[in-house]
Q: What sequence folds into this?
């Protein structure tokens, strides 16, 4: 299964053209349903996305297959996610064997739980009961859903949902015991779209972002010193993208910033005028052991960039 960090930028553009920005915060119940060994969390203000026709069109174009499959399962099960969900989150985490990765989805909103559960009962769906939790199948797609309460549902492959229930009930460690990731969340969860990645996810994401520059010897030197990363998107006044990669020391952050600047120069040399303009609006820096990448533009300028070879090389 492909990991979510390969789609960092596609997820970020889901709310393009939204005219306002709200906080996409996860409740304590939702956080506790995410197992501790998280590779990436992506959280989207679903209401803002639904209010933008352009955002919905873009979502159909760039949403990764793994996440589209989860969202489609919700809709096919007639859970009214389009109308009732306020926040939609996806988390990839390592399974208990430590060898594989699973993805679980979380939806927060005001759900018509009595009506939904009545529909499950009418269909005589075969349920699975784990302690006080009832897991329901969602159609023929092999997906399942469980309601933690009236405002929070967890969905995904049955094995992933079981892991989420075990995490929430304290059978296995959950996200709230992951001190580093919880601390990182505090700096991003007031944004409309945000994501966190652990060390392994950060290393793979950075190799993809750097492209040919990652083939340089210096990358192998800095790779194992990447601790975590985060990114946010805002749309209050145009498009603003901020990414921070936390390194183990200031020298590593400076070296990685140099590699990133080299990548920008390589792309500028071969890019179109529009791509060169976009790269000119990208600022790469390092400070106190953190690599930072900042980009901003108008909605129309960013929309034009979506069809460029540069964008396609990032989202492939």
A:
């Amino acid at each position: 299964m492909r990991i979510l960090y390969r789609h960092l930028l596609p997820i970020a553009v889901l709310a393009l053209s939204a005219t306002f920005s709200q906080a996409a915060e996860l409740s304590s119940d939702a956080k506790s349903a995410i197992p501790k060994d998280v590779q990436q969390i992506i959280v989207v203000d679903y209401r803002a996305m639904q209010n933008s026709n352009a955002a919905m069109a873009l979502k159909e174009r760039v949403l990764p297959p793994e996440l589209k499959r989860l969202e489609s399962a919700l809709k096919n099960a007639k859970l009214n996610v389009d109308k009732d969900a306020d926040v939609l989150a996806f988390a990839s985490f390592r399974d208990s064997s430590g060898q594989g990765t699973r993805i679980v989805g979380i939806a927060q909103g005001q759900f018509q739980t009595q009506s939904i559960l009545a529909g499950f009962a009418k269909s005589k769906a075969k349920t699975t009961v784990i302690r006080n939790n009832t897991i329901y199948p969602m159609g023929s797609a092999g997906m399942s859903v469980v309601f933690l309460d009236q405002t929070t549902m967890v969905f995904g492959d049955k094995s992933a949902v079981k892991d989420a229930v075990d995490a929430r009930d304290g059978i296995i460690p959950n996200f709230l015991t992951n001190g580093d990731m919880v601390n990182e969340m505090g700096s991003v969860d007031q944004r409309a779209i945000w994501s966190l990645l652990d060390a392994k996810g950060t290393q793979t994401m950075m190799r993809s972002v750097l492209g040919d520059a990652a083939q340089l010897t210096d990358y192998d030197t800095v790779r194992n010193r990447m601790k975590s990363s985060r990114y946010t998107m805002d749309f209050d006044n145009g498009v603003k993208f901020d990414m921070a990669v936390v390194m183990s020391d200031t020298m590593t952050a400076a070296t990685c910033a140099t590699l990133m600047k080299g990548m920008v120069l390589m792309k500028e040399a071969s890019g179109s005028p529009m791509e060169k303009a976009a790269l000119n609006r990208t600022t790469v820096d390092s400070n106190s052991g953190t690599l930072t990448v900042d980009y901003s533009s108008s909605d129309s300028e960013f929309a034009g960039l979506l069809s460029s070879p540069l964008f396609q090389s990032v989202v492939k």
About this structure: The radius of gyration is 20 Å.
